[in-house]
Amino acid sequence: MKDAKHANYTQLDHKVDIVGEQGVVILTSLQAYEQFAWCREYFSQQPQEGYFIWVKRSQPQPITTSIVMCSQYVTQNSLNLVVVDQDVQAEMINTCAAQRGNLYGKHIGHTKIVVKENARFKVKHVHSWGKDDTVNSNLELTLKRGSEVSYSQRCNHAPLKLTLENINYLDEYASLNYAATVLSEQGQIEMYDDTYLNGRKSNGISRVKMIARENTRLHAQSRMFANAAGTGHLDCMGLLLGDNSDIVAIPELINKNRDASLTHEASVGKISEEVLNYLRSRGLTEDEAIDLVVTGFLGEEENVVIDGVPVSSKTYM
Amino acid sequence: MLKIENLSTEVNGKKILKKVNLKIARGETHVLLGANASGKSTLLYTLMGFPEYTVVKGRIVYDSKDITRLSIEERAKLGMAAVYQNPPTINVRLSKLLDKIARKKVNLKGIESLLDREINLGYSGGERKLSEIIQVTSLDPEFIILDELDAGLDVENLERLSSVVKQEFADKSILLITHRGKALRFFRPDCAHVMLNGEIICSSTNWKRIWKTIEEDGYERCKTCQLHPAGS
Question: What is the ipTM of this complex?
Answer without folding.
Answer: 0.94
